[in-house]
Amino acid sequence: PLTPYFLFLKKNKENGVKYSGKKAGDAWRELSEKEKSEFTKEYQAAKEKYDKYLEEVEGIAPKTSSKKKEKPTCFNPARIRAVCGKKKEIKEMSGDTTKALGRVLEKFMQDLGRSSFDQMKAADKKTMTVEVLINAIDGSKKCAFLKAMEEFDTVVKEAEDAAESEKEKAKLARSKKKEEKDDESDDEKKKKKKGKGKC
């Protein structure tokens, strides 16, 4: 069906009034709300009739224009399919399913992040660590399913090992930097001693 604006143009054309693009828009804007409501009512009636036709004759449900465009998730759909596809039972997955899984993962990550942040503050820590994350999982009923997974202990161990490895690397880097600094200061002391004996 024609929208109220186009119904207005059609009525004027039938009455012998023709508008160019800009003039038509100006004429529409100059109409009062009461005058516009006549065209809006006519549009609503035509739309209801059309939707009824689609339902009865074509068997198609009317489209709702209020449907919001779904925003993409931060999780890559291809990655979701790849991870889920590791299970032999899951061979195909629709785009809607990957989007839904992405939204569920985002929501779960937000909840887990909030729980971890609360644990971090409660422990008076400034950095979120694996230990804080595990405490958040232990303290959350929503995360109980994680502990029930067969791989949970392995994943936690790998995360702890990775965190420990990062700590060791940082410690080695700091000690190496300190040694280099000490070597530089020793070299400077030797140069000063050599310079004192010559006059």
What is the strand and helix layout of this fold?
Layout: H1 4-14, H2 21-30, H3 33-58, H4 77-84, H5 95-122, H6 130-139, H7 144-148, H8 152-197
Helix pairs in contact: 1-3, 4-5, 5-6
Description:
This protein has 199 residues and is mainly alpha-helical. Helices cover 72% and strands 0% of the residues. It is built from eight helices and no strands. Helix 1 crosses helix 3. The longest helix is centred in the last third of the chain and has 46 residues. The chain is elongated. The termini are far apart. The model has no long low-confidence stretch (mean pLDDT 76).
How much of the sequence is in beta strands? under 5%
How confident overall, as mean pLDDT? 76
Total count of helical runs of at least 4 residues: 8
Q: Estimate the global geometry from the Cα principal axes.
A: elongated
Helix content: over 70%
Largest sheet: none
> Which spans of ≥5 residues are poorly predicted at pLDDT below 50?
none
- Assembly type: single chain
Q: What is the CA-atom radius of gyration, in angstroms? A: 35 Å
Span between N and C termini?
A: 105 Å
- Strand segment tally: 0
H and E order: HHHHHHHH
Assign the structural class, choosing from mainly alpha, mainly beta, alpha/beta, alpha+beta, or little secondary structure: mainly alpha
